[in-house]
Amino acid sequence: MASLNPTSQAPQRPPIRERIRTLAFEILLANPQGLRYSDLHRRIRQADPDLKASTVNTSIWNLDTTHPERVYKPVKGLFRLLAFREAEPVETPSSKPVSTQHRIREEVFCERLAEPP
How does DSSP assign 30-90, residue by residue? Predict the structure, then answer.
């Protein structure tokens, strides 16, 4: 009697997470400056629209810890291949404007409220 095991006849594909991470490495290789998490996620989904967003998320969110020999984060949220690591830190534009205004201490504020008008 012949075996009915479907895996013996078809070539086996790598696990889904491995495929996603391979795609991520290829995309990062094409972007030496690195990519923010959301850009990397979007490009992986564009490369393979059949992938679920949640599966891509769980496969790449910690690339720097699962593959420290290949990927690092020069700043929070930016993935970059070690092959492109520079001696000096990478400057990325901040999404939050830096405030130069001084903050009023709580004690001063409370004193002003406690003063009679």
Answer: T-TT-EEHHHHHHHHHHH-TTS-HHHHHHHHTTHHHH-TTTEE-SSTTEEEEGGG--SSPP
